[in-house]
Here is the input.
Amino acid sequence: MKKLGILVFFVCVTFGYSQKKITELEKNNSSLVEVLITTGISSATSTFSDNSYAADGSFIELSSTYYFSKIGLGISLGGFSNPTEGNLRNFANEVSYPVKFNSEKWKTSYYSIGPNYKTTFGSLETTIFGRAGIMLVKPISLEGNFTSENVDVSTTIPVYNYNTNETSNIGFYNAGIRLGYKLHPNWGLYATANYLSAFSDGITAIDGRKQFIDINKDGVINEVDIIRQDGTQIEFKYTEKNIQPQVFNYGFGVSYNFGKKLTTSNKNKKQSSRENSNPYFVSNELKDKMIAKNSGSVVFTNPSKKDKKQQKIIGVLPKNNSVFKNSSEIKNFTWKVIGTKILNPQYIIEVTKIGNNQKSQRIYIEKTSSTSLNTLQIFKDHQLSDGQYRWKVTETSTGNSSAPMFFTFSNCEIDFTISNEEIECLGYEGENRKFKICFDSTYSSTSGDLTYTNPSSGLSVFDQTYSPLSYTLVSPNPTLLTQIGASTTTISYCFEVTVSASVTSIGFGLQGDDLDPSPILCQPGVSVNFDELPNCICEECEEMDLSFDNFNISLNGTNGNQFNFNGDINVSVPIYGIEFQIQSYSYSANPSACSKGVSTFEESGMFLMPGTTINGSTSLQLINETASGSLSSNNNATKNVKYTSNSILTGAIPVNLTIGLPGPISGFDPSCCEIEYTVCIKVKVFYEESNCKSCVFTHCFTFNNQ
Here is the structure.
């Protein structure tokens, strides 16, 4: 707070003194554009660091302001990074046993807009500014492990973890001051200080710690206590911490001023009666020809940067794959909500008795407004039979649901678990995604061995509707193996599954043979569900940008039904290939009768060869047109065109896309037939040499033929 008070005092003094001065900016009665790049120290406040371990780090910002007089409107893009290792080290020093931490940095990017106020004293400039906008805070995961070297075998035990699950997107404001010195009419140096804060503590972190007992009664918890308790078996105790990013940024930078706006006469303001309002097209003064062009830059939308869910329901008890003798052992179903709080929540809990292949045999449903429900309220007086059950919770006002969890009623002595489950996206097969899932099966039982009548089908895989999915068991074991019950054994399995875009979760389960020939059901079974599938675009895509620079859209030939899109594709990282796809197109003619619309297949929003080139090459992969059966169609028209390279592609990649669209009636003067078009293009860039990993970008171009 002391830092904030000093900053506010200095801003107020500067503002008051500036009112007595007449600046050069006012004398010239002109507008000015200013571009600045700033870097320096990002100092986390106690409000931020106490719940997040954030320490002093660094920041960088690019900003620009358009000044009308003293007052201007500015925009800013930037980011700050705050390490955690220092504060975590302080935490480690507080305990009496050695803890080794794996630390990360809080990484925050932001964009904002707001007013500037500038005053000038000779070569000195003072700027007071305020901003409001959106900040994106990347998820963080911190881990602490106890390691003992005082035994025959080194022992590592997780004792602490701290994480946020997803990128947070929250509003923020900042205010500050810059003191600058003009080196040149256009260039200057400056120092800056500002305070930046989120509007709320909208980030939720999960803080997990293990609580150990002082076994030897010496007044402290040390490594002897941890080893004697077998610390790996102690469960984490989780608490939630709400985090509000707040930092003071101090630094310096360089400014560049340009663009003094001169007064223009009415004559210069006159426009042609046929002026085109579309920014992509201007006349070239050549008779009977119109060229559409724009020397600017088009930024393609990155779908991986869209907002993510800020709320999640997590089942707590009964734990997944728990085994009970009867329903009275469960006591309660409990769950918790992470993220944005729900006002007046209404939950529906659904418990389903399941058979083979996840088929429902009986369903129990109950409503509640709390995050806990006694089993008597849902099961009432029903006698529950042995077998496997599935349960989940749904909040009705938001539609959010917990991931399905499983438990079993059985009189057999069975210890059967799935652990170390992992899911990985292997890429795309056409429009479908291919995933690889690996897990460990651990089993022991005094009732018998874990066997499968059909080792190739004892594993069931299913989607969010519990419909079965086809899969293939792969290395290290292509079939399910018998596990001896007399001792604890663990076997690792992996399987691959290909799913369509409609599949949003993947579950799987192992179902062994009945160990008891009597009517008592003694059938080992466990299930696990991946409620959120990993993005096949991978995290790399969140940092990637793509733009189409210095592009031109021009008529190809005189028929008016082909257009050339050409310019330079710039990707922020090196790539090995690039693919273009026509997502959609639309058009409207004025008058409507001047165009017949699509008269040939090649005019239906298609890339046309050989005019289309990428990186100067016509050796492109394309999906040939064979489905229409039209004699007038050819195999040089496609919705998809792809270029691959054996070497890295960097910098500007020249692209010319010839696209066929509906045109005026043959022989009709194009100047008398105005056609408005919208063409949406999807661009996929491949950032690995194998062309397996890719990122997708989209953009829609709106233009006309005049």
